[in-house]
UniProtKB/TrEMBL annotation:
Gene Ontology CC terms: cytoplasm
Organism this protein belongs to: Gossypium barbadense (Sea Island cotton)
A single GO molecular function term of this UniProt record: acid-amino acid ligase activity
InterPro entries: GH3 (IPR004993), GH3_C (IPR055378), GH3_M (IPR055377)
The protein's name in its UniProt record: Jasmonic acid-amido synthetase JAR1-like
Length: 572
């Protein structure tokens, strides 16, 4: 009876969400009021002159839009152990570290119990809608999750990646169990000091519990792809471990070995079954349903075959935004309905600028200014915006840097599609090519090598302004050898596939030089991952940096040092 009581009531969760989103405007006002009443005594808000007011109009009139740089000194004082309320009334006891893959170094972000609760609310909401579409019985989850090392700040606060702070929280495993998604790996594996060893053990645990696995998940798709690429290399060793009931010597940490020893017993029948299934696969297509017959669930789809792929929720180190309530849509089309009670949201319209047309003695002049932010319920379908969040963790009118597109509304709350990071952009002249533009160009050009049953393992880009004119550089790591003829055509295809009007017109008049494709050695992007892990990042939060700017000089050096071939476009 107790076990049944712990299972989440899916219909109640969905019902509560429906009620809340039908009155999103009022919920937003109430949420802002709660945040300001709770933290109005904090130094940051005291300095803004709100004087106890909690309405959106006063809030926006008094509190400016900010970036992380504007808050850095406040957050640093919190990390240094300042006693007085600085950003929140309650003391901040934990600091989250962003992944650092965008700006080249991690940022400090406050983390508290209220943010943990919003994290669990997002998880529960996405689970409720997912479970209605793809019902799962009580089982386990193969979760490729990893914790980074926790450090202590000068003031004695624990600091770790945002995902690590979530995984270490006592509520996490309890919540996963209630969602029938308890991780099949012991904590010693999740919190292991070496991600290579943890990854191997995650795979081994998944195989041991293969009949109970209902869900294969990770924070980012990258972690799942990396896991199954690793599986291709170590599956025979995994079979040996299962057959003999003895863990490989590659696992060296005593705590991890001890935890795995409790799970690993000799099972030659299972080893034979896995060996048979792996031997029968063609190029590893359909690996996941072969190994795990009971899960709901471009390279990831290759492994998954017909198993549903779902992008569950949308958030960042700074806070959560929305949940996927349409789980039947493929990840490429995923949208996220904003939960109006987890923070106060504003959106800056992303038109190039607002031009105020002014007449002065018969002459026309233009004043360029950033558009005024609009509220959650005021966004328009089809338009793109930058997200601004105010949350319970001490961030007020914080420019997240994410660009989203409004795809529709669920009741009165918008459904957003992530487009790109606003500051991740290739630009030389009047061009502005986004991360999405880059992704689409790579996908189009990669079709040419797919004909030879090869793939782009990973990619990145850079703007090279050491030449005159400057030009785009695309780095590819490829799964095998490709002829110069095909790679030259790939280079031309990449160049033609950037459709930004500024780029095309600049190329035609040679204001931007021919695109350059640089092929790097196998393992180059693994070196980039190792670099970030060496800085204390967690694999759970790693995203390959798609555009390497000046702040990421070390990454650019790794890429350039491993170039084996390069090609220049003749498309224009």
């Amino acid at each position: 009876m107790l076990e049944k009581m712990e299972i989440l009531d899916v219909e109640k969760l969905v019902g509560d969400f429906e009620v809340m989103t039908k009155d999103a405007e009022n919920v937003q006002r109430q949420t802002l009021k709660m945040i300001l009443e709770e933290n109005g005594c904090a130094e940051y808000l005291q300095n803004m002159g709100l004087n106890g007011r909690t309405d959106p109009e006063s809030f926006k009139a008094c509190v400016p839009l900010v970036t992380h740089k504007d808050l850095e000194s406040y957050i640093q004082r919190v990390a240094d152990g300042a006693f007085s309320p600085i950003l929140t009334r309650k003391p901040i006891t934990t600091i989250s570290l962003s992944s650092g893959t965008t700006q080249g170094k991690p940022k400090f972000v406050p983390f508290n119990d209220e943010l943990m609760e919003t994290t669990l609310q997002i998880y529960r909401t996405s689970f409720a809608f997912r479970n209605r579409e793809f019902p799962i019985e009580n089982g386990r989850a193969l979760q490729f999750i990893y914790s980074s090392k926790q450090i202590k700040t000068k003031g004695g606060l624990f600091a770790g990646t945002a995902t690590s702070n979530v995984f270490r929280n006592s509520q996490f495993r309890k919540a996963m169990k209630a969602m029938q998604s308890e991780c099949c790996s012991p904590d010693e594996v999740i919190f292991g000091p070496d991600f290579h060893q943890s990854l191997y053990c995650h795979l081994l645990c998944g195989l041991i519990f293969h009949e109970e696995i209902r869900l294969v998940s990770s924070t980012f798709a990258y972690s799942i792809v990396l896991a199954f690429r690793t599986f291709e290399q170590v599956w025979e060793e995994l079979c040996d471990d299962i057959r003999e009931g003895v863990l490989t010597s590659r696992i060296t940490f005593p705590s991890v070995r001890s935890a795995m020893a409790k799970l690993l017993k000799p099972n030659p029948e299972l080893a034979d079954l896995i060996e048979k299934k792996c031997s029968g696969l063609s190029n590893w297509y359909g690996l996941i349903p072969e190994l795990f017959p009971n899960p709901y669930l471009k390279k990831l789809r290759h492994y998954a075959a017909d198993v549903p792929l779902i992008s569950a929720d949308y958030g960042s180190s700074e806070g959560w935004i929305g949940a996927n309530i349409n789980p039947s849509l493929p990840p490429e089309s995923a949208t996220y309905a904003v939960l109006p009670n987890i923070g106060y949201f504003e959106f800056i319209p992303l038109k190039e600028n607002v031009e105020e047309h002014m007449q002065d003695n018969g002459n026309v002049s233009f004043l360029s200014m950033e558009p005024k932010p609009v509220d959650l319920t005021e966004v328009r379908v089809g338009e793109e915006y930058e997200v601004i969040i105010t949350n319970f963790g001490g961030l007020y009118r914080y420019k997240l840097g994410d660009v989203v597109k409004v795809m529709g509304f669920h009741n009165s709350t918008p459904e957003l599609k992530f487009v790109c990071r606003r500051n991740v952009m290739l630009a030389i002249n009047i061009d502005k090519s986004t991360e999405q533009d880059l992704q689409l160009a790579v996908e189009e050009a990669a079709k040419l090598i797919a004909k030879e049953k090869l793939e782009v393992i990973d990619f990145s880009s850079n703007v090279d302004v050491s030449t005159d004119p400057g030009h785009y550089v695309i780095f590819w790591e490829i799964s095998g050898e490709v002829s110069d003829e095909v790679l030259t055509e790939c280079c031309n295809c990449l160049d033609r596939s950037f459709v930004d009007g500024g780029y095309v017109s600049s190329r035609k008049v040679d204001a931007i030089g021919p695109l350059e494709l640089r092929v790097v050695r196998r393992g180059t992007f693994q070196k980039i991952l190792d670099h970030y892990l060496g800085l204390g990042a967690a694999l759970s939060q790693f995203k390959t940096p798609r555009c390497v700017g000046p702040a990421n000089n070390k990454i650019l050096q790794i890429l350039c040092d491993n170039v084996t071939k390069n090609y220049f476009s003749t498309a224009f």
